[in-house]
Amino acid sequence: MLTAPVDSPPARPSLPPTVFWRIAEGIPRPLALLLMGLSVLVPFSLWWGLSVSGWVPPRFLPSPPLVWAALMRLWREGLLWNDTLASFGRVSSGFLLAAVVATPLGIAMGAFASIRALIEPISGIFRYMPAPAFTPLLIIYLGLDEAPKIGLIFIGTVFFNMLMIMDAVKFIPKELIEATYTLGGRRWQVLLQVITPYITPNILDAFRINMAASWNLVVVAELVAANEGLGKRIQLAQRFFRTEEIFACLIVLGLIGFLLDLLLRRLVRLTCRWAFL
Prior knowledge:
mainly alpha, 10 helices, 74% helix, flat
């Protein structure tokens, strides 16, 4: 019995070659540099054009030259340097304290289900409490000096660091741990010589991401009670309607965060080259 031949489905046309829309692939270095430059130049040009168009009064939207002049004035008076140092010191102290606490706890929570069951619920509850809401309690308990500001940054970052490190530990290949035990490794060797080195890039990435939150919180802390700091400078500028100083302080905050981000990325590249092979 003869059967009718089955027609094969028509071949789909292949995707046109593209550079810009390639999924999960890199782009040429010149194109990357061009796009990075545009990401800064386009918003800057829009700001400059809008500020000189006359549509918005200069007191509400100062032009870049006005902001630059305010920046230079704050620098000459020594206020910008002192405020930046004060804010940087608070962020460094609070975030370093949070990192010291979060790293061993996150590793222990990821490695031991018992520790995870003990700590994860309460840390999950604290994580959803807005850190600025702790400010009144911190002032009552710790006073108005540096301690409540550092405490606010610690509370606002420690739980996020801890949970991100815990998640990194959970994705370690089981084969690595089993191979260590097979070769006679002890439990502490698995923790210190297998798990910790393997997740070091993830730890640094978690710090890089959560560092932004610490800078947000230091501004909140300085708005409440401080004699110096970039947040305090913004509050004083708002009180006297000096929008150009507010813009200047915001730009300084953004540049500090950007430089710290680049520094941590570079640190990951230098200390964890094996992760990029």
